[in-house]
Amino acid sequence: MRGNVFIVGLGLIGGSLALTIKKQHPDVIIHGYDVNEEEMNKAIILKIIDKKAESFQQGAEIADLIILSTPVLVTEKLMVQLANLQLKENVLITDTGSTKKTIVDKAKVLTEKGIQFIGGHPMAGSHKSGVTAAKEQLFENAFYIFTPNSSQKTEQINTLKEWLSGTKARFMELTAEDHDEMTGILSHLPHVIASSLVEQAKEAEENYPLLSRLAAGGFRDITRIASSDPTMWASISLLNRDVLVRLLKQWIGKMNHITDLIQEENFDELYAFFQEAKVFRDELPVHSTGVIHSFYDLFIDIPDYPGIISEITGYLAEEKISITNIRILETREDVYGVLRISFQNEQDRSLAKECLEKRTTYDLFIQ
Ligand SMILES: NC(=O)C1=CN([C@@H]2O[C@H](COP(=O)(O)OP(=O)(O)OC[C@H]3O[C@@H](n4cnc5c(N)ncnc54)[C@H](O)[C@@H]3O)[C@@H](O)[C@H]2O)C=CC1
Ligand SMILES: O=C(O)C(=O)Cc1ccc(O)cc1
Question: How confident is residue 349, by pLDDT bands cut at 50, 70 and 90?
């Protein structure tokens, strides 16, 4: 592909898409725009974009492809602005927002003027934000959902898929309604719950100052996503509010029921509740990279002795397996610690697992 790609919102998602598009289509010029001047400058320094647009209008008017990767409430406003600009005749516009129904509805302001808009949502990411977190492999193997309207031609969708082929994502088409219902269940509701668990712990810390230090294991796993950007999540909660409010009421109903079971000391029904959840959770596909999975992490139960980390990284280095991050997750009361090593992709993680299985006796696991 050739031409000008204009990316608005140079954060984790905009930056990562810029990298994948440039890699796949080296002849294109990637123009970037962000209200935060610092993010734009970082994007240039890190070679994530080729040029800073002089303004939203200037970047939009020369573009063949426009990608809106801003918080969803902002995206809707930018769509209205785009409808009033002199865009190229065949420009294709897409977004990356985590909600789709209201955005696709808003697209009428564009389609009425003959401008093509196809809603998009790369369902991979992380709790990190900003252009410095951008990476080329972010979307590899993840689902990338499109929510075209009924009048959109296959040719336009195929053109968008071609632009985005460097993501190596698995493209899927859904209605905006189905998209918002499923992401509500898998992503938006869990985010609200994760943040509320953290809030509850924060309030309890006044009486139990040791609480933060003890927060490990399960609590950390279930609340990781509470570290995500608050502007992004407040916007998502408002735009998917009908679905989210319904899901929250359903969840509160379930929690009331569980509360009753606990109060009644009803072991059998509590057992059934935990058992059903375990069976469904255990059967979720492990290697998929939907909303549920976003990292290529390998966890290693290591003995706590000096030199252990260099021993492990040494084995990986000898087999030329690169790592992107390394962290001791928790120091437990017993002898073992858990080392988490992150890799760029599934292949590197499998090679690492094989390498360490061969060379060590430590327990390895993938979440
Ligand atoms: N973070 C994630 O894991 C995922 C996020 N998304 C969606 O992608 C979009 C972008 O998310 P992230 O990249 O994570 O956010 P981010 O916070 O890393 O980046 C968003 C960028 O938009 C910029 N921005 C805000 N208002 C603007 C405006 N009026 N004009 C130009 N730039 C503006 C911000 O300064 C920021 O640099 C959101 O709609 C989000 O719902 C989709 C999939 C995953
Ligand atoms: O960090 C995680 O696990 C996420 O859930 C990332 C994420 C955030 C928003 C999306 O719309 C899709 C993926």
Answer: very high
Which protein residue's CA is at the shortest distance from atom 2 of ligand 2?
Answer: 126
Residues 135, 110: one domain?
Answer: yes
Ligand that comes closest to the CA of residue 56: 1
Query: Does 142 share its domain with 188?
Result: no
Nearest-atom number in ligand 2 for the CA of 183 is: 11
Q: Return the percentage of the chain with pLDDT > 70, whole number.
A: 95
Q: Give the chain's domain count.
A: 3
User: Is there a single domain that holds both residue 125 and residue 218?
Assistant: no
Together in a domain, 273 and 152 = no
Residue 300 domain boundaries? 296-365
- Confidence (pLDDT) at 334: 44
- What CATH number is attached to the domain comprising 24? 3.40.50.720
How many CA atoms lie within 13 Å of 155's alpha carbon, on the beta-carbon side?
2
Question: What ligand 2 atom has the least distance to the C-alpha of 127?
Answer: 1
Separation of alpha carbons 100 and 106, rounded Å: 10
Q: Find the 191 Cα to ligand 2 centroid distance in Å.
A: 9
- pLDDT category at 83 given cuts 50, 70, 90 is very high
Quick one: pLDDT band at residue 288, thresholds 50, 70, 90? very low
Q: How far is the CA of 350 from the centre of ligand 2 (A)?
A: 23
> Model's pTM, two decimal places?
0.83
Q: Report ipTM for this prediction.
A: 0.99
- Between helix 230-239 and helix 241-263 the angle, nearest 10°, is 100
Identify whether residues 305 and 352 lie together within a single domain: yes
122 and 73 share a domain?
yes
- Centre a 10 Å sphere on the Cβ of residue 157 and count the other Cβ atoms it contains: 17
Of the listed ligands, the closest to the CA of 223 is 2
Ligand 1 center from residue 287 Cα (angstroms): 26
Nearest CA to ligand 1 atom 27: 35
**DSSP letters of 233-286?**
HHHHHHHTHHHHHHHHHHHHHHHHHHHHHHHTT-HHHHHHHHHHHHHHHHTS-S
The answer to the question of residue 289 being in a domain is no
How far apart CA 352 and CA 146 sit, in angstroms, is: 34
